[in-house]
Design brief:
Largest sheet: none
Distance between the termini: 83 Å
CATH class: Mainly Alpha
Helix content: over 70%
Bound molecules: heme C
CATH topology: Four Helix Bundle (Hemerythrin (Met), subunit A)
Number of domains: 1
Strand content: under 5%
Number of helices: 7
CATH architecture: Up-down Bundle
């Protein structure tokens, strides 16, 4: 037998293994389409993170609605204060970075979100008679900005904003 053919026969198995490995790697890492999806638009990702932080503070205050003032602890008042401050600051980020130039409703709701969250701060720090009612009032208006902007953009997160209430599609 020619030495070249003998060598090829010996190598055949190794070559087959290499081919197999290359193919398998190609499948496991996914096509170029899948890769594109993974590398999400960084601006969209940042907006998502921002909304998550807004939502986190929103929920902390939501958990403290419907109390009677004597039931509120110092910690609760502090949460209202921080919710107001944090959402107002994050609204500023939204206004600077994310409001589309041609979307007046988006702009209005982002400005209103800032205003109503800011309005929670004063009563939360001063804790005057009726301060809790003022916080609840501003919080209710803040909640409307969430709803209005999401509805405007077709984002459905109703059940997470209004726990315990049935979802009202389109409202
Ligand atoms: C001015 C417009 C606007 C306002 C006001 C607004 N949002 Fe959003 N929200 C968005 C947009 C845009 C998205 C979609 C972000 C994305 O691409 O994932 C979003 C998405 C979300 C999400 C889903 C985030 C995720 O994980 O995908 C939550 C939760 C949320 N918002 C909570 C809130 C809460 C709570 C408020 C009110 C305190 C609020 N939003 C007010 C525009 C707004």
């Amino acid at each position: 037998m020619l030495p070249v053919i003998a060598l090829f026969r010996k190598m055949r198995f190794v070559l087959l293994l290499v081919c197999f490995f290359v193919l398998w790697e190609g499948c496991a890492s996914g096509g170029p389409e899948e890769k594109k999806k993974e590398e999400e638009d960084p601006k969209k990702k940042e907006l998502k993170e921002l909304m998550k932080r807004i939502d986190e503070w929103y929920k902390k205050s939501q958990d403290r609605m419907g109390y009677y003032p004597p039931q509120l602890t110092d910690g609760d008042w502090f949460i209202f204060e921080r919710t107001g401050e944090t959402i107002a600051n994050l609204s500023d980020v939204m206004l600077k970075k994310f409001v589309p130039a041609d979307d007046k409703i988006y702009l209005k709701e982002a400005k209103d979100m800032k205003k109503h969250s800011e309005d929670m701060v004063k009563p939360a720090t001063e804790r005057y008679n009726g301060a809790y009612e003022d916080i609840q009032y501003s919080f209710g208006r803040l909640r409307n900005t969430c709803k209005n902007c999401h509805n405007h953009l077709g984002i459905q997160i109703y059940t997470s904003l209004y726990p315990g209430e049935p979802s009202k599609e389109g409202h």
